[in-house]
Specification:
The complex is a heterodimer of chains A (231) and B (232).
Chain A: H1 9-27, H2 31-48, H3 56-77, H4 80-84, H5 87-93, H6 99-128, H7 135-160, H8 166-192, H9 203-228
Helix pairs in contact in A: 1-6, 2-3, 2-6, 3-6, 3-7, 3-8, 6-7, 7-8, 7-9, 8-9
Chain B: E1 6-17, E2 20-31, E3 35-39, H1 46-53, E4 61-66, E5 69-71, H2 75-78, E6 82-85, H3 97-107, H4 112-125, H5 141-153, E7 159-163, H6 171-181, E8 198-202, H7 206-212, E9 215-218, E10 226-229
Helix pairs in contact in B: 3-4, 3-5, 5-6
The chains are: A mainly alpha (231), B alpha/beta (232).
Bound molecules: adenosine-5'-triphosphate and magnesium ion.
Magnesium ion is lined by residues 46-47, 87, 163 of chain B.
Chain lengths: 231, 232
């Protein structure tokens, strides 16, 4: 018996990513909330810390905690339409390899994070930074951390989405696992945002840690996703 | 494919939810190209049976062979060959009817030109041509069902699994739907694999089901299911 031909990976991936982006553009369900959350948090830090200028590890801590919690908002929702509107069933019936869905959702999450950062990192700089030259190398750290967020977030979200306690489960599972990523990201960032201009002390080491973390969770997600979709 | 002229073969199939059996001791042999009606009261396991056949649920015990694939082991081979229409329409609410079908076509790797043509003609058949550009969230229940029917057969599957396909359809819609999900000899399309189309439909109308189907499977709650040939 001949088995059905499978849809090429790239085609299926493109279909899902475009579907999700089109839906987001139309409904604006995730991104505006993420941006608004981040900007509001900066405002609160500004008044809470009563400081108009931050640098070094304090600046790094403020930006990364804010980005992390803004990311959780997006992670919470990423599989919602698949669950509530039957996308999981439709997907399981389709001639598509399961990991395609993982890669597609991680790609969408990655894009959301990039858009979030394009908007809110300049806001952060205006609010708190006197020395802007560290922002250029920061882009590398942002992208590497986004990849880790996207891979881990997609994995956690797919596990939590079938539970009624989803909103609780995502942060509960995500936050402990994301600690190493946060340590590396803040470690790399703090010297970039030093008051006297960026210094690259341990930059390479932290970047390597980020890369390792990204690699591990991309592989784990890719490998276990197959089993997460079973009944 | 000598023996597997049977599109479906079940032996002593059972499925539990937790401890409770929803389906037990189901046996069946359904030749390719024929049609089966599944009858039974609410909660007798009709939807469960269909989901097992679609490989969306794992059987708890027994032997299941669908289109020559033994489940759950070879479930992956079935992907793309089943036209499943469940209680839920499996449509994205924020996309239009047409966009949902286009998404489905891409997911199934259909050639773009052919997909477009198919989508338009299927929509036309079900009278949804002009209403295909509303968002699904703005559809009535029957309109959703019509798009869901288009979705279920867009890839021209060899096996139709239909869970109360008439639900929410008006008489005219039910009549129109025959061209896409009716008896195998009524269908206005052929399966991609050039195989005869086999049809399994859950129904709550015993008279009509018996008249239409080659075989009838009656599920009961807590008793052994009864399989028999329909009297033509
Ligand atoms: N997800 C589930 N979890 C637990 N039990 C379930 C689940 N789905 C169905 N059941 C149980 O399995 C049995 C069969 O359900 P099923 O949905 O297959 O019935 P049905 O014949 O399709 O009914 P209906 O005519 O109402 O659609 C029922 O007793 C039901 O309580
Ligand atoms: Mg049912």
């Amino acid at each position: 018996m001949k088995s059905a031909r499978m849809t090429p990976f790239r085609q299926a991936l493109g279909a899902i990513v475009l579907k999700d982006l089109r839906t987001e553009l139309r409904t604006m369900r995730s991104l505006p909330a993420m941006v608004l959350f981040a900007v509001t948090t900066f405002v609160i830090f500004r008044f809470g810390l009563d400081r108009t200028a931050l640098s070094g590890s304090l600046a790094s801590g403020v930006i990364w905690t804010t980005l992390l919690f803004a990311a959780v908002l997006g992670i919470n929702r990423i599989f919602l339409p698949e669950r509530e509107e039957g996308g999981f069933d439709a997907f399981r019936l389709a001639p598509v390899d399961r990991p395609v869905l993982f890669v597609a959702k991680a790609a969408v999450l990655f894009l959301y994070l990039v858009v979030l950062e394009v908007v809110v990192v300049p806001v952060f700089a205006v609010f708190f930074l006197q020395e802007w030259s560290g922002l250029v190398p920061l882009v590398v750290i942002l992208l590497a951390t986004n990849l880790g967020f996207a891979a881990l977030g997609t994995l956690i979200s797919s596990m939590a989405v079938n539970s009624r306690a989803r909103d609780l489960l995502v942060p509960l599972l995500l936050l402990p696992l994301v600690v190493p990523l946060m340590i590396a990201a803040t470690g790399a960032t703090s010297h970039l945002l030093d008051a006297g201009g960026p210094s690259y002390d341990k930059f390479g080491t932290w970047l390597l840690v980020l890369g390792l973390y990204d690699g591990i969770f991309c592989l784990v997600g890719y490998a276990v996703f197959e089993f997460l979709l079973e009944d | 494919m000598s023996q597997s002229e049977n599109a479906i073969r079940l032996r002593d199939l059972g499925r539990d939810y937790g401890e409770r059996p929803a389906l037990d001791g189901v046996g069946l042999e359904l030749p390719a190209g024929s049609s089966l009606a599944v009858l039974g009261p609410n909660g007798s396991g009709k939807s469960t049976l269909l989901r097992v056949l679609a490989s969306l649920l794992r059987p708890s015990r027994g032997e299941v062979s669908v289109l020559g694939c033994s489940l759950p082991r070879e479930a992956w081979k079935l992907r793309g060959q089943i036209g499943y229409l469940g209680h839920e329409p499996l449509l994205y609410e924020d996309l239009t009817g047409r966009e949902n079908l286009e998404f489905q076509a891409r997911l199934y790797g259909l050639p773009a030109a052919e997909a477009r043509q198919r989508i338009e003609s299927d929509l036309e058949l079900l009278g949804m041509g002009r209403r295909a550009d509303y968002r699904v969230s703005d559809y009535s229940a029957g309109m959703k069902q019509r798009i869901a029917i288009c979705r279920a057969v867009l890839h021209r599957p060899a096996l139709l699994l239909l869970d109360e396909p008439d639900s929410n359809l008006d008489p005219e819609g039910r009549e129109a739907a025959r061209a896409l999900i009716g008896r195998p000899d009524e269908l206005r399309w052929e399966s991609e694999a050039d195989r005869p189309v086999t049809r399994v439909a859950v129904s709550h109308d015993p008279e009509k089901a018996r008249a239409e189907a080659d075989q009838v499977l009656e599920l009961t709650i807590g008793g052994a299911p009864v399989a028999r040939r329909a009297v033509a």
